[in-house]
Amino acid sequence: MKNDKKYLITDVNSFITCVLCKGYLIDATTITECLHTFCKKCIVEYLEENTNCPICDTLLHQSHPLLYIAHDRTLQSIVYKLVPNLERNELERQLKYYDENHLEYPRDLREKLEQFNLLSNSKLLNKKDDKSETNGERKLDAVSTNNYHRDDEQIALSLEPLEGLKSLEPHKIYSNIDLYKELDIVCNDEILGKDHTLKFILVTKWKDKELPMRLNFRPKLVF
C-alpha cells in the first residue's frame, strides 16, 4: 500500500505568502517580467511609488509599471485550498466593509457571497440603482447624455492619465481637490491604475462593449 507523505503548511509558506504584508496571498497578482507574486493591494500600492520588483529588483516600466502585473487565479485557488477558512474570512471582511460603508457589492463579490451563503449575514442588501449616489459611488460616462462631441476620437482626453481625471472629481464629492487620493476609479469592478489612460482602458477593459464607457468613483477600499 502506497503511503502518502504529509507536509506541514509551514513547508510551503514561502510560496503562498506575500513578502510585502507577510500574510497569505489575497488576490494573488504576479509581475509578468519575473513571475514573483504578491497580494494585489500590496503590489499596486508599492508600484504607485516604485517601478521595480520588491524581491528581485527587476525593472518593470519607468512610467507604467502597472501594465506588467496580472491576476494569478490558479495560485490564488491553491492558496485558498491550502489555508483553511482563508477565503471565507476574506469574504466576511469584505462583506463587513461594504455594509458599514453602504456600498453596493461588485458582481463577482456577490457571486462569491452567494456561494458561501454569506448574503444572509448582510446588514444591507444593496440593490443596483444607477440614479443613486448614496452608495458612495458617482457615475462617470465617457460621453455625456447630451452629446456635444464630434464623432471622431478625442485624442487629448483619451491619452490623459487617470490621475489627472481623478483630481477633478473631489470638487464634486468633497469640495477639496487634495482628497483625490481617497478615491478609486473602477471599471467592470476592477480598480484602475493611476497611470492608465482612457484609451488604454477602452481597449483593454471595454472592448466590444456598448458605448459610452462607464467609470465609477468610489472611496478607496482599505480592508
UniProtKB/TrEMBL annotation:
Keywords: Metal-binding, Nucleus, Zinc, Zinc-finger. It is found in: Nucleus. It comes from Brachionus calyciflorus. This is RING-type domain-containing protein. GO terms for cellular component: PcG protein complex. The lineage of its organism: Eukaryota, Metazoa, Spiralia, Gnathifera, Rotifera. InterPro entries: PcG_RING_finger (IPR051507), Znf_RING (IPR001841), Znf_RING/FYVE/PHD (IPR013083), Znf_RING_CS (IPR017907). The keyword Oxidoreductase does not apply. Residues 18-57 form the RING-type domain. It holds the Pfam family zf-C3HC4_2.
